[in-house]
């Protein structure tokens, strides 16, 4: 691609993003296929969009792994999968008190959202009761915190019960394109995942859904999953980069470069201009010293560890954010632009909480 052509594409996708218009698949492909020497131009263009809607704020999120390992699903990227030989901690459900204690420490460190995650195909009704108790314990200790739940595929009525318990959001990632999905999982389908995100949204939970990159996907797969996610209209989009755990079929896949990760993040910012784009799993090992540059694209990160792997220490995350010229988003600040229908904000207004507009 010539410099003139890339400059034209970047101007077009930036103008569209600032006007709320979806980029074309061809434009997304052009961003993903741009040369390394043009990377700063790509980042600068996407950064204009990030600053327009989110300023210099970074939202902090914290994972609580409530149930680890022993999953009956065969997702090839996952260390908790059926038949996994990965050396990870395996345990049944944390108590509500232990989960709430972990959440309290995260909130004290600046986390605005706590994500409760449990391995498995999906929750039984008694699991919903258990999670509801945990949500209540967390909200009782820190009523201002957002609670997102991630339990797998939902059965009818379960999303409504989670919402009634006080949960704010539900996460279920599409992970990759529909075409590529059959190559990474055989125990459930891409449509199963789409249906769960739709159920959660219909029940009034803020939809959170993203993808994992580094699993052998093509540029077209990246565009396809971005388009599928756009159709679901999520409030938050986690962007994960594969951690190729030993003991999984994806072991040894180190195909990502920092430059590739940044181009993916830029493409997602153009596709989701006014949505929380979250820098998630694998950022430390794939972006490495270029993590601060990613903050110019993503407006949200996970603080500390992930489900079965260690992350960058929280203190280093906070230093990185400050050194890069960003500030941690406060609990009283609204994440999404006021023009966007934000289900978390809607719920809080219903509870009588006043939310300031974005600046």
TrEMBL record:
Please share the entry's free-text remark on the cofactor: Binds 1 [4Fe-4S] cluster. The cluster is coordinated with 3 cysteines and an exchangeable S-adenosyl-L-methionine. Binds 1 [2Fe-2S] cluster. The cluster is coordinated with 3 cysteines and 1 arginine.
Q: Which pathway does it take part in? A: Cofactor biosynthesis; biotin biosynthesis; biotin from 7,8-diaminononanoate: step 2/2
InterPro entries this protein is in? Aldolase_TIM (IPR013785), BATS_dom (IPR010722), Biotin_synth/BioAB (IPR002684), Biotin_synthase (IPR024177), Elp3/MiaA/NifB-like_rSAM (IPR006638), rSAM (IPR007197), rSAM_sf (IPR058240)
Keyword Signal in record:
no
Q: Which GO terms describe its molecular function?
A: biotin synthase activity
Q: Where does [2Fe-2S] cluster bind?
A: 115, 148, 208, 278
* Keyword terms of this UniProt record: 2Fe-2S, 4Fe-4S, Biotin biosynthesis, Iron, Iron-sulfur, Metal-binding, S-adenosyl-L-methionine, Transferase
Task: List, separated by semicolons, the cofactors it needs.
Answer: [4Fe-4S] cluster; [2Fe-2S] cluster
EC numbers:
2.8.1.6
The catalytic activity, as recorded, is: (4R,5S)-dethiobiotin + (sulfur carrier)-SH + 2 reduced [2Fe-2S]-[ferredoxin] + 2 S-adenosyl-L-methionine = (sulfur carrier)-H + biotin + 2 5'-deoxyadenosine + 2 L-methionine + 2 oxidized [2Fe-2S]-[ferredoxin]
Indicate the secretion signal residues.
Answer: none
Residue sites binding [4Fe-4S] cluster per the record: 71, 75, 78
Task: List the Pfam families hit by this protein, alphabetically.
Answer: BATS (PF06968), Radical_SAM (PF04055)
Explain the purpose of this protein. Answer: Catalyzes the conversion of dethiobiotin (DTB) to biotin by the insertion of a sulfur atom into dethiobiotin via a radical-based mechanism.
Q: What binding partners and quaternary form does the record give?
A: Homodimer.
Name of the protein this chain belongs to: Biotin synthase
């Amino acid at each position: 691609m010539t410099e003139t052509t890339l400059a034209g594409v970047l101007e077009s996708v930036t103008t569209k993003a600032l006007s709320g218009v979806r980029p074309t698949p061809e434009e997304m492909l052009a961003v993903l296929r741009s040369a390394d020497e043009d990377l700063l131009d790509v980042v600068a263009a996407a950064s204009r969009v990030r600053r327009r809607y989110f300023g210099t704020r970074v939202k902090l999120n914290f994972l609580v792994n409530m149930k680890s390992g022993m999953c009956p699903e065969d997702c090839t990227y996952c260390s908790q999968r059926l038949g996994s030989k990965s050396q990870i901690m395996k345990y049944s459900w944390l108590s509500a008190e232990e989960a709430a204690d972990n959440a309290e420490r995260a909130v004290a460190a600046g986390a605005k959202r706590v994500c409760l995650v449990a391995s498995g195909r999906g929750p039984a009704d008694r699991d919903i009761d258990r999670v509801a108790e945990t949500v209540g314990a967390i909200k009782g200790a820190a009523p201002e915190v957002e609670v997102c739940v991630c339990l797998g595929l939902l059965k009818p009525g379960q999303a409504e019960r989670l919402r009634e318990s006080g949960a704010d959001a539900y996460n279920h990632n599409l992970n990759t394109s529909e075409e590529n999905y059959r190559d990474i999982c055989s125990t459930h389908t891409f449509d199963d995942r789409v249906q769960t995100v739709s159920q959660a949204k219909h029940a009034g939970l803020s939809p959170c859904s993203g993808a994992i990159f580094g699993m052998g996907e093509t540029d077209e797969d990246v565009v396809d999953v971005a388009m599928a996610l756009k159709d679901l209209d999520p409030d938050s989009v986690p962007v994960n980069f594969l951690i190729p755990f030993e003991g999984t079929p994806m072991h040894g896949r180190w195909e990502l470069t920092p430059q590739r990760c940044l181009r993916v993040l830029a493409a997602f910012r153009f596709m989701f201009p006014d949505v929380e784009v979250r820098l998630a799993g694998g950022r430390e090992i794939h972006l490495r010293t270029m993590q601060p540059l990613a903050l110019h694209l993503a407006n949200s990160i996970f603080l500390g560890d992930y489900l079965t792997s260690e992350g960058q220490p929280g203190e280093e995350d906070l230093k990185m954010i400050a050194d890069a010229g960003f500030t941690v988003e406060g609990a009283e600040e609204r994440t999404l632009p006021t023009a966007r229908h934000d289900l978390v904000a809607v719920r809080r207004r219903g509870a009588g909480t006043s939310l300031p507009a974005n600046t």
